[in-house]
Specification:
The complex is a heterodimer of chains A (587) and B (348). Helix content of chain A is 39%, strand content 15%. Chain A is of the alpha/beta class and 587 residues long. Chain A folds into five domains: 95 residues, Glutaredoxin; 204 residues, Rossmann fold, CATH 3.40.50.11540; 84 residues, Ubiquitin-like (UB roll) (Roll), CATH 3.10.20.600; 88 residues, de novo design (two linked rop proteins), CATH 1.20.1440; 56 residues, Alpha-Beta Plaits (2-Layer Sandwich). Chain A is globular, with a radius of gyration of 27 Å. The termini of chain A are far apart. In chain A, helix 2 crosses helix 3 and helix 17 runs antiparallel to helix 18. Chain A has 24 helices and 17 strands. The mean pLDDT of chain A is 90. With 348 residues, chain B is of the alpha+beta class. Among the domains of chain B are: 73 residues, Ubiquitin-like (UB roll) (Roll); 58 residues, N-terminal domain of TfIIb (Single Sheet), CATH 2.20.25.90; 70 residues, Rossmann fold. Chain B is built from eight helices and 16 strands. Chain B has a five-stranded mixed beta sheet with strand order 2-1-5-3-4, with helices on both faces. In chain B, a hairpin with a 6-residue loop joins strand 7 and strand 8. The longest helix of chain B is centred in the last third of the chain and has 19 residues. The chains are: A alpha/beta (587), B alpha+beta (348). At the A-B interface, helix 17, helix 18 and helix 19 of A face helix 2 of B.
């Protein structure tokens, strides 16, 4: 950026849009125009929309960069725009009270952003922004100076593994696909939940990766599989494809070679199972999303019976980086068998909710307490669910574990969707496991017996435990069901579905036993196991609880101790919260 | 091109099969039994029931979908897989009505057989069961979807063999259900192929209930009388009444039948069925002997031919006749009557 310039970057990802981002942009433009008519500001000022930079809980985030000095404002609302323009833009005085504090630096400095790097910096709807950041240069390099085999070799050397699912080596998968005798091949990019920020923040990287992948395996047709509900991702990807086509990055005879490539969209339905490769292909073919049997693997016989590669958007976004900077550089990041970085969605009981990218092998402690800023209300961390609903619960005691494929597998978890949910001491582990099982039971396609009935029976058992109706036999049944499902289910969904149960039974068995033997929920979450009682000595008989109780379960004369009728109590907790004298206890 | 042969060991028996043969096929060819509920030799592989698990190098794999590889060591009956199988059948039974005592399929039910084999009196896993209030109103096929184990055989036979695609899966997970579009009543050609492949009592002939199950049934192999195709059928006879028609898989029609062959057998014992010729005399039908009837017909043909010429007579033959009968019929009209006025219902 040239000196003497003012750059304003407004986050316009899904979350930024929800935080009135569009209005803020137009207000900035309006105020600049009004105040800058003398030419001092307007001419040198650029207002730009950018993708999500991760910290969605502070949206709307706005960067103001004057002559290279950057100030980031958080929680910006339309009413704040005028003052920012007046004081910062016109007079050059940043408004410190609105700017991000030190914790923002903490959030960003510990991350290793290579895939998410351009998100929040470039305008995702402007191909020139991407080109300025060496965009499509890797594509040119691959097509004009490398053979497809060399591209595969380079990706293999980088040891890049699929970002999601089982973490198969991407280069190896490409090689298998390329070696198939059938010359019609396809490459599919799956844009899942975690990849939305990529599609919204830097769609061209996905497209570039997809084209290079197509070149490597010898496919001339690429698909982008995305849920129709991700409107903004779809819109930005569509714009990016259009721009890429106009600049000659898509179409026939790319860069003067004989390589042709184009991309079409395929819209998925609202189904978790569509993340499973073979179910995804069924879906593109217009069939019911149910997984196919393996073998044959998709790389041998996939979409329309042709050799097919399915990579998710994050994996493909890594490709231009690997080709551009070289596999050697890439493989300096990460651990021995897990190279590069991984994007996680950090959520739950944590201060900084958001999207983070860290080098493989980064410890959970760094992520949770460094980047995440620690637990809400400084409560005690209990466990972290890594890898989405079918990941595993990792207890606090293992927080120094480095995150990579091997360690997660050892822990009975997966990288999966890259989800990361933090639970603290106020969370009941059995309820957490039940929550995930509820989701998986709903999302099971129902094709195979272990998953269809296993998830159903598991959910019933977990419900029984949270309601205090379970016996020790039910724990045995849970363990047996876990074993059946993980060994004999048809696809990855069923095989990984018991993970939350297995890991919680391993690390938090006491909590299960407390529910079953003592009929007690240690975290005080399971309604059926809580009792509210009034301590006679402390009750002043003010009558507040009596009036507020929706079930009319509390009786007592004024100024005399009240009593809760347990048979009527619905355990809503209103009395507990409303008692000023702390005379009601929850057990 | 001759297929390459691969060798493997199944339960310590050396086996050599053409490349691409699945473990299940290889084992069954050796007489080694592997239970399976969704597998059907004439349909594409589904791999949904997971009952056909076998152990290959310590790992459980589904034998119906895994091709034999060179040097594979396969164990079909290790305690590990037997226990897995048992528990999977247990899971299926946990969502299955316990009404074998009144089920049409009892004694001929693949699930019942496996429950017996693994001695599952009460399932170890239990819980919610599916229940469907609305029943189908069609005249041929009784669908009791509570008994459906979602193996998908019916869906596949309808698509792959019959080419009708009248049914498919709807909903997902526990609620998964095989049904016609929009859960309407079944309104297809009612060939009943789905009934013939259903492993449980979910699909049975409506007219079969409660005429008799598989016990004390006399089976009579014969040829379907309906058309010239000559499908082989097996009549199930109980108390001197045909109560069901099936077809065996090793016949020229490979066990497949159409709606008429499978469901329209009731005419055999109909009281309205003509068994002797009738001649109308003085406005009333009178029973006569075959000789009398044939003489009468021959005499009338002759009279018509003499008076109006042979072209006053025309013959229309039936698809229910065999090729030989049809040949004789046209020969009779051309040579004996002397006319070319001959046609056949199958032409329309």
């Amino acid at each position: 950026m040239a000196d003497n310039q003012i750059l304003i970057r407004v986050c316009l990802g899904t979350s930024g849009k929800a935080a009135d981002g569009e209005k803020v942009i137009s207000l900035f433009r309006m105020h600049i125009q009004r105040h800058g008519l003398d030419g001092s500001v307007q001419k040198r000022c650029v207002v730009k929309k950018v993708g999500c930079r991760g910290l969605c809980s502070r949206d709307l985030l706005v960067d103001v960069i004057i002559d290279g000095r950057q100030t980031t404002y958080q929680n910006v609302t339309p009413s704040m725009v005028e003052r920012i323009v007046q004081e910062h833009l016109l007079r050059g005085n940043p408004i410190d009270e609105w700017a991000v504090k030190e914790d923002y630096a903490e959030f960003t400095s510990r991350q290793y952003k290579i895939v998410l790097g351009p998100c929040g910096v470039i305008d995702p709807e402007n191909i020139d922004d991407y080109l300025k950041m060496n965009g499509y240069r890797a594509l040119k390099k691959a097509l004009t100076t490398m053979t497809p085999e060399e591209v595969i070799k380079e990706v293999k050397r980088s040891k890049l593994r699929g970002r999601g699912g089982s973490g198969f080596l991407t280069g190896k998968k490409w090689e298998i696909c390329r070696s198939q005798p059938d010359k019609t091949r396809y490459i599919i990019c799956n844009v899942g939940e975690v990849n939305r920020a990529l599609a919204e923040g830097n769609p061209h990287a996905i497209i570039e990766g997809l084209i290079i992948g197509g070149y490597a395996i010898g496919a001339s047709q690429g698909y982008i599989f995305i849920r129709e509900r991700y409107h903004l991702s779809v819109e930005r990807l569509k714009k990016a494809i259009k721009q890429a086509r106009e600049r000659g990055f898509l179409g026939e005879n790319l860069f003067g070679t004989s390589f042709n490539f184009d991309i079409t969209f395929s819209f998925g339905t609202e189904a978790f199972i569509c993340g499973e490769e073979t179910a995804l292909m069924e879906c593109i073919e217009g069939k019911r999303a149910m997984p196919r049997l393996r073998p044959p693997y998709p790389a041998e016989k996939g979409l329309w019976g042709k050799p097919t590669i399915i990579n998710n958007a994050e994996t493909l976004s890594n490709i231009p980086i690997i080709i551009g900077k070289g596999s050697e550089w890439f493989s300096t990041i990460g651990t021995e068998h897990s190279k590069g970085t991984k994007v996680f969605t950090l959520s739950g009981k944590i201060k900084n909710n958001g999207l983070v990218e860290v080098a493989m092998g980064t410890s959970l402690r760094t992520i949770v307490f460094g980047i995440g800023g620690g637990i809400e209300g400084n409560r005690k961390l209990k466990a972290i669910q890594v890898g989405g609903p079918s990941g595993g619960l990792i207890p606090y005691s293992m927080i120094d574990m480095g995150l990579d494929y091997e360690n997660l597998q050892k822990m009975g978890s997966i990288i999966g969707s890259g989800g990361m949910v933090v639970f603290d001491e106020t969370d009941c582990i059995v309820s957490v496991a039940k929550f995930f099982m509820e989701f998986l039971q709903r999302e099971s396609c129902g094709k195979c017996v272990p998953c269809r009935l296993g998830t159903t029976r598991m959910l019933e058992l977990l419900t029984k435990i949270t309601e205090g109706r379970a016996t020790m036999k039910d724990i045995e049944a849970l363990e047996r069901l876990s074993a059946i499902m993980s060994t004999s289910s048809l696809c990855g969904l069923g095989r990984t579905a018991p993970n939350p149960v297995i890991t919680s039974l391993t690390h938090f068995r006491d909590e299960y036993l407390a529910h079953i033997r003592d009929k007690h929920c240690p975290a005080g979450v399971c309604r059926a196991l809580i009792t509210y009682t009034i301590i006679e000595d402390l009750c002043k008989g003010c009558g507040v609880c009596l009036r507020k109780c929706p079930a009319k379960a509390i009786t007592g004369e004024r100024k005399k101790p009240h009593v809760i009728d347990q048979s009527l109590c619905i355990k809503c907790g209103i009395c507990f919260q409303s008692c000023k004298f702390k005379a009601i206890i929850k057990e | 091109m001759k297929k390459r042969m691969v060798r493997c060991r199944i339960n310590d028996i050396k086996v050599e099969v053409p490349e691409g043969t699945t473990i299940l096929e290889a084992a069954r060819a050796q007489g080694i039994y592997i239970p399976a509920l969704c597998y059907h030799p004439k349909l594409s592989v589904t791999g949904a029931c997971r009952v056909c698990l076998v152990e290959v190098d310590g790992v459980a794999v589904v034998s119906c979908a895994t091709p034999v590889e060179e040097g594979m060591t396969i164990i079909t009956n290790s305690p590990y897989v037997e226990e897995l199988r048992r528990d999977i059948i247990d899971l299926i039974l946990s969502d299955h009505p316990y009404d074998c005592m009144v089920c049409q399929k009892a004694g001929d039910c693949e699930l019942q057989e496996l429950a017996y084999f693994y001695q599952i009196r009460y399932p170890r896993f239990s819980g919610r069961k599916r229940s469907y209030k609305t029943k189908d109103g069609n005249p041929f096929i009784e669908r009791e979807m509570e008994k459906c184990i979602q193996c998908g055989r019916c869906v596949k036979v309808c698509d792959e063999i019959q080419g009708v695609c009248a049914i498919d899966f709807a909903y997902k997970g526990f609620e998964l259900k095989v049904c016609p579009p929009f859960e309407k009543d079944l309104d297809c050609e009612f060939c009943g192929q789905c009934v013939s492949v259903c492993p449980t009592g979910a699909l049975v002939g409506k007219d079969w209930i409660p005429k008799g199950r598989q016990m004390n049934i006399k089976q009579v192999d014969t040829v379907c009388p309906y058309c010239g195709c000559g499908c082989n059928i097996t009549l199930h006879v109980s108390r001197n009444e045909i109560i069901r028609v099936t077809s065996k898989p090793d016949t020229l029609n490979e066990g497949w039948l159409c709606v008429k062959g499978r469901f329209a057998y009731q005419f055999v014992s109909s009281p309205e069925r003509l068994k002797k010729p009738l001649i109308k005399r003085n406005g009333r039908f009178e029973e006569v002997s075959w000789d009398t009837a044939l003489d009468f017909v021959a005499q009338r043909f002759k009279e018509i031919k003499d008076k109006y010429g042979p072209d006053a007579i025309a013959g229309l033959s039936s698809a229910r006749c065999t090729n030989e009968e049809n040949y004789l019929f046209q020969k009779f009209l051309r040579a004996a009557i002397g006319t070319n006025n001959i046609d056949h219902c199958a032409r329309y």
